[in-house]
Design brief:
two-stranded antiparallel sheet; 6 helices; 10 strands; Pathogenesis-related Protein p14a; alpha+beta
Length: about 350
């Protein structure tokens, strides 16, 4: 079974889990970069798994003013690491252009996959669409002909991601987002459907996000990265999967939170309704249009054999903001929309 974890910026995630002593037991947890994340663990089926998703903020997700941080080298320890701030910190999840000492950025939840705490909203807007996703290239590129005297690189637990793997992750997300945009997503009960969406964006794969996700997955921390600017969903499983199967399974489990728990039709994310559904809210966040995922296997010091990390931009899960705007599909898209699937492009 998968353990699910989700990160939230004003609500960066939820985490829930059901862990068992054997790999055959099921456990799921949602890890949200909750600056405190409420998480609940959806029922799982055969192998132990865990999912985590994170980031939320209290301001409007449509602010386009915030820049996105630049990335360091894959082996650079300065890459996104959890903040020491309180999980109830309401600072912003999106990087600010202010001084590096600015403490306004939000902090994902530091809880373990089995923690069921809730995420806390950030005060800034995570849906800034004015900035590019940070580059994964290091300014100190070591590709020159000069021999390196550096120590051997750390063990690699992540698997290479193929085009097929990328397509599987993107198509799964867009299938569910299209279903939601067209008003066909079941909301907890079989006959009750969510309102159609007027501004649901189509997702695309982003190699830089995938690079960051892989760097974090390779640390085998089984917890949120506290990266402060990107949404994050995590899933852990006691079985062994291919990238494609792991991405698709985690995607389905995360989206299944809607039918299992339900969401208010006013579509506003709050601390009260965030628990247990933070993976779904990040997947369904209208302004999120880029995703990058990675999977690590056989991490040491853990019973989880499969560890999935997906990063999202712009980040979602902002408390006090709607997951999306209800209305006629494509009616609030700019500049264009695929009306057949109801997704803005």
């Amino acid at each position: 079974m998968f353990l699910l974890l989700t990160l939230a910026f004003a609500a960066f995630a939820e985490s829930s889990s059901r862990s068992s002593s054997s790999e055959s037991s099921e456990s799921s947890e949602e890890c949200s970069s909750e600056e405190g994340n409420p998480g609940t663990e959806p029922e799982t089926t055969t192998v132990v798994d865990s999912d985590e998703n994170c980031n939320a903020t209290s301001d409007s997700p449509n602010d386009e003013s915030s820049p996105v941080p630049s990335s360091d080298s894959p082996n650079d320890e300065s890459s996104p690491v959890p903040s020491s701030d309180s999980p109830n910190d309401e600072s912003s999840p999106v990087p600010s252009s202010d001084s590096p000492n600015d403490e306004s950025s939000p902090v994902p939840s530091s809880d373990s996959p089995n923690d069921e705490s809730s995420p806390v909203p950030s005060s800034d807007n995570p849906n800034d669409e004015s900035s590019p996703v940070p580059s994964s290239d290091s300014p100190n590129d070591e590709s020159s002909s000069v021999p390196s005297t550096a120590a051997p690189s750390s063990p690699q637990y992540t698997l290479p991601v193929t085009e097929e793997d990328k397509n599987a992750a993107v198509q799964c997300h867009n299938k569910f987002r299209s279903e939601l945009a067209l008003g066909n997503s079941l909301n907890k009960t079989g006959g009750n459907k969510m309102p159609s969406a007027s501004n649901m964006r189509k997702m695309e794969w982003d190699d830089n996000l995938a690079k960051f996700a892989a760097e974090w997955a390779n640390k085998c921390s089984i917890s949120h990265s506290w990266n402060g600017w990107a949404g994050e969903n995590l899933a852990m499983n006691g079985g062994t999967f291919t990238n494609k199967d792991a991405f698709e399974y985690a995607c389905g489990r995360w989206w299944g939170e809607l039918a299992a728990l339900g969401f208010p039709k006013d579509l506003i994310l709050t601390g009260e309704n965030f628990g247990g559904i933070g993976h779904w809210t990040q997947m369904a966040w209208a302004n999120t249009d880029r995703i990058g995922c990675a999977m690590a296997q056989n991490c040491p010091n853990t019973n989880w054999k499969t560890y999935v990390v997906c990063w999202y931009y712009a980040a979602g899960n902002y408390f006090g903001s709607p997951v999306y705007e209800a209305g006629e599909p494509c009616s609030k898209c700019s500049p264009k929309c695929d009306k057949a699937i109801g997704l803005c492009q």
